[in-house]
Amino acid sequence: MGSKPSFSFFRAPYKRIVFGVPFGGLAVLWALMQAPLLQENDALTLALTADLLFTIPLVYFLLIRKTDIPKITVFPMMLLGVFLGSYFLPPQKQTYLDLFKYWGLPLIELSVLILIGLKVSRALKTYTTFKSLSPDFYEVLKKVCLQEFPKKLAPLLISEVAVFYYGFVRWKKRTILPNEYSYHQKSGTPSLLMGLIMVIGIETVALHFVLAKWSTVAAWILTGLSIYSAIQVFGFAKSLSQRPICCSPDGLVLRYGILNETKLNYDQIGAVVLSTESLKKEKYSRKISPFGDLESHNVLIHLKQLGTLEGLYGFNKKFKTLALHLDEPQQFKAQLDRAIAATQPLED
Fold this sequence. Notes:
Layout: H1 12-33, H2 42-64, H3 74-88, H4 95-130, H5 137-148, H6 154-169, E1 180-181, H7 189-212, H8 216-242, E2 245-248, E3 251-256, E4 260-264, E5 269-274, E6 285-287, E7 299-311, E8 316-324, H9 329-342
Parallel strand pairs: 6-8
Antiparallel strand pairs: 1-2, 2-3, 3-4, 4-7, 5-7, 7-8
Helix pairs in contact: 1-2, 2-3, 3-4, 4-5, 5-6, 6-8, 7-8
């Protein structure tokens, strides 16, 4: 069987149809719920309730079934219908809606939980199969999520799971192998990130008390978002020591924790230069660190053609010159030069 077409495959008009038709239908139903005729017509009440709970989600499903939009998004569409009915149908006209909320909705929620459980169980089995192929958890995680989950959902899952894994599960110190190179020991980035966590903590406490005078709910929402941000930063910082750069037989693997990475064949590399000079502001000149000038570099890698730097949440950038900081730049350059030379054709 062929793979389902990506949503980006469709032209812009079709994208507007996918979301415009169901939301347009909900808008029409909302207008009908305001009509005086509804007060005296039970048949219309039943029809409106059925449209909110079943017709609109069914139309949405038919529109997305041949795209890579996750089918589970039909459930939020149904919940939106429940929300609109609960707030805009007259209370005395919510009999059918109440029946659905008390009997139908729990069954659908249970079905969704079972579906998610089956997906997770299958993903764990796939992880068991893949983990023997690579010692790098993040690399295995990407393979599992891309195979078991929708393409648009996979990058989000990869990033969120990786943050919690490196932040709270992976505490064992990573042994650096002879063909691997660390970049966190002589860099100021870990300290910078830890300092950022402290700033987030201090500002969160201060802003919480200020906002609480205006809205307790807003204050706790901000506090929750700040805690979540601190957890993210902590996971990023911990991943730096767990994912070294690697000169493998298959090619060069450049990493910056879980924030950025790229894989290069040795014959793609034009030159490796030890340099701490400022990076020229050119279109395809980039730093592997997303913190830009906040982190220095001591190695420049020039490619013969464009490479792809893969970031969080599926964001990619093209580059031809990549700047990075290494704890042992001389050893790295020496090994990389040997690997590049081995790919060059022998002269007669």
